[in-house]
Amino acid sequence: MFGVVALNRFNRRKKVSGKLSPEVHRKLLQTLYAQPVSLVFAILMITVTSVAAAIASGSSALMGGCIVLGLIGLARIVAIVTMSRVAETKSVRTLEIFYTVGAFGHSAGLGIFAASTFYLDLDTTVQGIMLASGIGHAIAVGARDAGRPALALSQPALVGIPIFAALLETGSPTYIAFAISMILAGPAMGAIIHTLYRSLHDSIESAETSAQLAGRMQVLARTDVVTGLANRAGLNHALSQTVSELPDGTSLALFWLDLDRFKEVNDVLGHTVGDRVLAEVAKRLSAEAPCGATVARFGGDEFIVICPVESRRACERLAGRLLDNVTRPLRIDAERLEVPASMGIAIMPEDGQDADSLMQCADLALYHAKVGGKNHSRFYDHSMSRNLLRRKEIEAELRAALQREELSIFFQPIVDLESGRIRAFEALVRWFHPEKGELKPDEFIPVAEETGVIVTLGNWITAQAARTAVHWPDDVNLAVNLSPLQIKAPGAALGILSALREAGLDPSRLELEVTESLFLEDEATTGNFIRELSAAGVNFALDDFGTGYSSLGYIDRFPFRKIKVDRSFVSGPSVGRKSDAIIRAVAELGAQLDMEIVAEGLETPEQVAAVRAAGCTLGQGYHFSRAVPDYLAAMLLAQERHGGELLRATG
Ligand code: C2E
Ligand code: CA
Ligand code: CA
Fold it and tell me: In terms of pTM, does the model score above 0.90?
């Protein structure tokens, strides 16, 4: 549709202009320089006839004339052959003048030469030869130079006028009759030249029009309609061209930009506003990109800038400017919008040797920028490729592992620090890989989260753990870790409740451990999820407290029953007076709000004593037990219940 409109507009524009377009003018002129061989033969013919005439007549004047004609002819041959090779690079004016001077000189020379055979009253054979030569030349150049009609008509005139005058001068009625018949040939030649010119002109013009249209179509096909930037096809073209023309020793940077919350803009404010945001981003990028850069919309809310850079420092500065400019708040009508963006950067040849690998590296860097908290830029480094390989491997294997039952759940007791009794078990997933051995959850849970496998995996864990937990005494709870993505999946709350129902576990015995990262994404969905399950009796614990924002706001707003103080406060390298004070503060808060405080990572009796003194009510860690298979968990419970003294709350 767009193409048809452009085509019509293009045709209209063509029709109104009566003047020759520069391209058609040039092409017509180039026909004069095409086939220099035909010109060489014509000049040879004139030279041969004039030499023959001079010899036959024995006239020294003719001899002189034929030398002049020969020299003019030679100069023309040399000039035309040389010019035809460089015609593309010369201006239209130069080509025109150059050809005209030679042609006029030659034609006039020939006309005068032929006329002089009559003035000198030479032999009729000589006159006949030169008359034939002159007229033959006039007809031939008329046809040959039809591309420039004025030139094609002037040359026969320049040959004909001196001959015409000489014929009249003879006073012979035969010659006068012949001279008059020469005038009649004028209109005939004019008509032939005109017809030749028209068909030459029309075919050149239509070829030119199709070439221009094809060019315009190509431009349209490579342009993004919304932003006017290059689209994906345009980018590919520009990238391969830039890469092939890149001077040795120059680096090429590729900045891959992705708007972080563009979907929200589209969903909430509509696509029209979305399009205007994209157009504004495009404008800002183009304004900031240095000249010689290509700015493209790669699709959706992704943009790419490519440009040669002098150094990595310069590249960093440019990345900063591009990102700052794009993420500046923008105003659309009355709406003030903030659209954060992430950026991945790769440099050629350091990161990738060709266009494809450069794109791959920037894409990976962008991925890391997004995973690493969004709204910032990341440069590619080689570890990203290695991680990608491992992640891909893990993703594929994880799906298979779920089916092959290579995964199992271990249970780690959470112990009452006062009585030493087991109050709950935390379910921790384990993967026993047939070749790689035991894989840590830290290695595969993030992959499961990124790839979405976590939804299936998480449901499986909850169902499986609940089936084990029904066999424990009623006062022993089950704690299960929950990833943010699981909450977002449709019907997440319902899935958990039905897993509990199937296993026959009372919802009040389940504790879901969530981290603060959950609230960063989408507080509304999270809030609904927590409230829905809380209403059914499920408990919530805030996991890894102290590692994130540690905002007390969440504790106030959501019904958490427990706070789990991260193990870095208990057994990490930075444990000391400060961490002790933090634990105390959190424990005090817990006591006030009637929440339990769990100290994680207790490995030694001293640590147990310290967190107990600080006010923590529950503890978890290797000091009590590692995470163990279900039958060992059952044994721990049995021993405890039958007076065994396996777990000790105090040193
Ligand atoms: P987390 O929820 O903080 O789990 C506690 C981690 O600390 C477990 O590591 C546990 O084995 C370890 N741990 C317990 N006591 C000690 C101790 O005394 N010293 C030390 N150094 N470590 C101790 P694990 O099993 O490797 O799990 C790591 C993380 O993986 C978990 O941290 C949790 O975030 C995630 N994860 C584990 N299982 C699941 C699961 O089933 N679902 C989800 N979504 N995440 C899970
Ligand atoms: Ca946990
Ligand atoms: Ca934890």
Answer: no
* Residue whose C-alpha is closest to residue 226's, from 174, 122, 296, 167: 296
Ligand 1 atom with minimal separation from the 603 CA: 18
- How many CB atoms lie under 10 A from the CB of residue 317? 12
Domains parsed from the chain with CATH numbers: 4-215 (no CATH), 232-380 (3.30.70.270), 390-643 (3.20.20.450)
CA of 513 to the centre of ligand 2 (A): 6
Q: Are 600 and 567 in contact, with CB atoms under 8 Å apart?
A: yes
Are 534 and 496 within 8 A, CB to CB? no
Residue-wise pLDDT for 182-208, tens only, equals 888 888 888 988 999 999 899 988 998
Residue count of the chain, please give it.
651
- What own/partner pairs with CB < 8 Å and gap ≥ 24 does 386-390 have? 388/364
Residue with CA at minimum distance from ligand 1 atom 10: 627
Q: Which residues surround ligand 2, an ion (CB under 5 A)?
A: 481, 513, 543
Query: Exposure string (b/e) for 97-133, b if CB count within 10 Å is 16 or more?
Result: ebbbebbebbbbbbbbbbbbbbeeebeeebbebbbeb
pLDDT tens-place string over residues 109-164: 999 999 999 998 888 888 898 989 998 888 888 888 888 888 888 999 999 999 99
pLDDT digits (tens, 9 = 90+) for 360-379: 999 999 988 887 766 789 99
Answer yes or no: is the C-beta of 427 below 6 A from any ligand 1 atom. yes
